[in-house]
TrEMBL record:
<keyword id="KW-0524">Neurogenesis</keyword>
<keyword id="KW-0964">Secreted</keyword>
<dbReference type="GO" id="GO:0005886">
    <property type="term" value="C:plasma membrane"/>
</dbReference>
<keyword id="KW-0732">Signal</keyword>
<dbReference type="GO" id="GO:0030215">
    <property type="term" value="F:semaphorin receptor binding"/>
</dbReference>
<dbReference type="GO" id="GO:0005576">
    <property type="term" value="C:extracellular region"/>
</dbReference>
<keyword id="KW-0221">Differentiation</keyword>
<dbReference type="GO" id="GO:0045499">
    <property type="term" value="F:chemorepellent activity"/>
</dbReference>
<dbReference type="GO" id="GO:0030335">
    <property type="term" value="P:positive regulation of cell migration"/>
</dbReference>
<keyword id="KW-1015">Disulfide bond</keyword>
<dbReference type="InterPro" id="IPR027231">
    <property type="entry name" value="Semaphorin"/>
</dbReference>
<feature type="signal peptide">
    <location>
        <begin position="1"/>
        <end position="36"/>
    </location>
</feature>
<keyword id="KW-0217">Developmental protein</keyword>
<protein>
    <recommendedName>
        <fullName>Semaphorin-2A</fullName>
    </recommendedName>
</protein>
<dbReference type="InterPro" id="IPR001627">
    <property type="entry name" value="Semap_dom"/>
</dbReference>
<dbReference type="InterPro" id="IPR036352">
    <property type="entry name" value="Semap_dom_sf"/>
</dbReference>
<dbReference type="GO" id="GO:0001755">
    <property type="term" value="P:neural crest cell migration"/>
</dbReference>
Length: 448
């Protein structure tokens, strides 16, 4: 295997390789080294674990040890290599960095094309006059998506977000330029996520204003009407950190963490999955230009016990569509002891929570109560679009009922993997055919 590693991913100092048969962890594989581990979950194994596979530690491989299999790319003066997108039909890697886009060969990270894309002088000056630093007033690429033969990419552009559509084989060829507001954050530090559906609609989760106080899940472009989450409503979204977005069937799923509005005592962050219907057309009079199908549920990643130990803060996800599984990295809060875990969620468990009751607070002085879903398993109209009714869900219900009462539980009671004194940051899961069964191999990186 050849890893093409840019400066950002090179910051990862640890790789872990853990394999997971459908029912639990069995053994570890590692690229050239073969480090192994006893099963974390004991179950009848079709074959005994190999002798060298009885080590109980999680293997840690410094990235330097992988250097013979890595190729690097860097450019003097260029930093923040934050966006990477694979163009597998051309065997290329598209890279978004500060004020630059690059096209690299996937086999050895050699440069094929470099394009400078910085803010113009006027935009920079106006950004600095608003009190931002020279460093902040640059173009940080935050959206980089392939749609057919085109690339859709957005940058912060000195706090004046902008998006361009470019030709995939020639990234200096700009076919279209659109406003980046609600598609890309203003502030390079803000976490956002975006996706283009098969039909060409852009779903973005970001902040919509200069000060970063107006978070939004927003749909635009394509043929459906633009829709957003309710504005300045902390029950819909409360200081969210958006992680990822996936299109699955009739829905778009967002993964995030946010301040838990339903948690009464003290500030706590919960991890969430949120969902909207792709054929939502918004309300009329009520919820105009706003989602009528927005729902969200808490994700539980914890160690069981009399008092469960919660890993409340989702950091990244990986979706395995073949298995309908979402893997997530969860950590403790940065202000408490470091601890990390990996939990996987079955899409059917997520759907089940969304078909269950809601949790609702009549007014700020009353407590949150469970209330039945008036139309479980509702969708907006049918595949051909909404029916004669705006939505099968009443708009009044849609405005107040969006937090699910049930918590989404992971596939196993305890995390698939957990470790103290470390912060996992990213993971990738690969399915590998073993002798008798398929293994899920997790590659995990840390920020340290
Ligand atoms: C990198 O790979 C490309 C395509 O596989 C090849 O044409 C090129 O010669 C390689 N460059 C280096 C420096 O190895
Ligand atoms: C790429 O696009 C630019 C701008 O449109 C153009 O000047 C250039 O000739 C194109 N390069 C190739 C190889 O087509
Ligand atoms: C974005 O996410 C990272 C990793 O979770 C976090 O360290 C950072 O503080 C977040 N950015 C903002 C503006 O909160
Ligand atoms: C989360 O999972 C743990 C372990 O299975 C369980 O003890 C706990 O009750 C769950 N918490 C919630 C809020 O569902
Ligand atoms: C996910 O749920 C489906 C339907 O309930 C089930 O068939 C499947 O085995 C589950 N997958 C895992 C990995 O638990
Ligand atoms: C429209 O909504 C009403 C009340 O919710 C319902 O009785 C009726 O069946 C709906 N019509 C269609 C075509 O969905």
């Amino acid at each position: 295997m050849v890893g093409v590693v840019g400066p950002v991913t090179m910051a990862m100092s640890l790789w872990e390789v853990v394999s997971l048969p459908p029912v639990g962890l069995l053994l570890l594989l590692c690229l050239p080294l073969c480090l192994c581990q006893q099963p974390l979950v004991n179950f009848e194994s079709p074959f005994p674990p190999l002798l060298e596979c009885t080590r109980k530690v999680h293997p840690i491989v410094p990235y330097k040890a992988l250097s013979p299999w890595m190729s690097g790319f860097s450019r003097p003066g260029v930093k923040d290599f934050s966006q990477l997108t694979l163009d597998l039909t051309r065997n290329q890697l598209i890279v978004g960095a500060r004020n630059h886009l690059f096209r690299l060969s996937l086999s050895n990270a050699s440069l094929l094309q470099a394009v400078e894309w910085g803010p113009d002088e006027d935009t920079k000056r106006s950004c600095q006059s608003k009190g931002k630093t020279e460093d902040e007033c640059q173009n940080y690429i935050r959206v980089l998506l392939i749609t057919g033969r085109r690339i859709f990419t957005c940058g912060t552009n000195a706090f004046t977000p902008v998006c361009t559509t470019r030709q995939i084989g020639n990234i200096s060829r700009v076919m279209d330029t659109v406003n980046g507001v609600a598609r890309c954050p203003y502030d390079p530090r803000h976490n956002s996520t975006a996706m283009v559906t098969e039909k060409g609609e852009l779903y973005a989760a970001t902040v919509i204003d200069f000060s970063g106080r107006d978070p939004v899940i927003y749909r635009s472009l394509g043929n459906m009407p633009p829709l957003r989450t309710a504005q300045y409503n902390s029950k819909w979204l409360n200081d969210p950190h958006f992680i990822s977005v996936y299109e699955v069937g009739l829905f778009t799923y967002f993964f995030l963490r946010e301040n838990a509005v339903e948690h009464d005592c003290g500030r706590t962050v919960f991890s969430r999955v949120a969902r909207v219907c792709k054929n939502d057309v918004g309300g009329r009079f009520l919820l105009e230009d706003t989602w009528t199908t927005f729902m969200k549920a808490r994700l539980n990643c914890s160690r069981s016990g009399e008092i469960p130990f919660y890993y409340n803060e989702l950091q990244s996800t990986f979706y395995l569509p073949e298995q309908d599984l979402i893997y997530g990295i969860f950590t403790t809060n940065v202000n408490s002891i470091s601890a990390s875990a990996v939990c996987a969620f079955n899409l059917s468990a997520i759907t089940q929570a969304f078909n269950g009751p809601f949790r609702y607070q009549e007014n700020p002085r009353t407590s949150w109560l469970s209330t039945p879903n008036p139309i479980p398993n509702f969708q907006v109209g049918n595949d051909r679009g909404p029916g004669e009714n705006q939505t099968e869900r009443s708009l009044q219900d849609a405005q107040r009922l969006f937090l699910m009462s049930d918590v989404v539980q992971p596939v196993s009671t305890d995390p698939l993997l957990y470790q103290d004194n470390i912060r996992f940051s990213k993971l990738v899961v690969d399915i590998v055919q073993g002798r008798d069964t398929l293994y899920h191999v997790m590659y995990i990186g840390t920020g340290e």
